[in-house]
């Protein structure tokens, strides 16, 4: 129903706002300073 859709959208918007407000849990590891390496993905 349209009402349930809007409730779901509002819940997602609230969750996104909460996630953006949180500090980065990986910041202490300084991942941006680690060199990346090429790899081949096999499926």
From TrEMBL:
What highest taxon heads this organism's lineage? Eukaryota
Q: What is this protein called?
A: (spotted green pufferfish) hypothetical protein
Source species: Tetraodon nigroviridis
